[in-house]
Amino acid sequence: MTAPVPISLEVNGERVDADVLPRLNLADFLREHLKLTGTHVGCEHGVCGACTVRVNGKIVRSCLILAVQAQNGTVETIEGLSDSGEIADLQAAFRDRNALQCGFCTPGMLMAAQDLLKQSPMPDREQIRQHLSGNYCRCTGYQAIVDAVENTARARAGHGR
Ligand code: FES
Ligand code: FES
């Protein structure tokens, strides 16, 4: 049997040292070792987007990378973005617009939406749909999600909601 290997990384601003099996993916490491269960796991093969987190500033599917690949890196999860207030307005827009129902897709949607708004502060609806096209939602039909992201972009640009 393969032995655990030591890793060091920063998760939501805090240094983490752990011993992990080389095959452990980042999603399971976050959820099971660190109890950061806001990162959801749906398909486990890179399709649904529920497991989206930031690694070194870029969004990735945490089911598709190994925990050991985050060695010396910086990981941000939905808990980190939420606690820092970075996405407070986006979360409020999702609530206001009923852009979540069961909430399973929501952490990944918020991560992807914030990634878009950082790159492109005033996206049109097509750009929003395109950027979120790798995040599946079984409940909302997407319209309300696109509305919430569009409203957040407008509000951040000072155009009101
Ligand atoms: S659980 Fe990672 S993309 Fe679906
Ligand atoms: S709110 Fe249920 S999957 Fe999106």
Task: Please state the structural category.
Answer: alpha+beta
Gap between N and C termini: 56 Å
Oligomer: single chain
| Average residue pLDDT | 97
According to DSSP, the number of beta strands is 5
Bound molecules: FE2/S2 (inorganic) cluster
Number of helices: 6
What fraction, in percent, of the residue positions are helical?
Answer: 25-40%
3D architecture notes:
With 161 residues, the chain is an alpha+beta fold. The chain has six helices and five strands. The chain has a five-stranded mixed beta sheet. A hairpin with a 2-residue loop joins β1 (5-11) and β2. One FE2/S2 (inorganic) cluster (FES) binds next to loops.
Question: Which helices and strands, and how do they pair?
Answer:
Elements: E1 5-11, E2 14-20, H1 26-33, E3 52-55, E4 58-61, E5 74-76, H2 78-84, H3 88-96, H4 106-119, H5 125-131, H6 143-156
Parallel strand pairs: 1-5
Antiparallel strand pairs: 1-2, 3-4, 3-5
Helix pairs in contact: 3-6
Task: Provide a concise account of the structure shown.
The protein is α+β, with helices and mostly antiparallel strands.
Give keywords.
alpha+beta; 6 helices; 37% helix
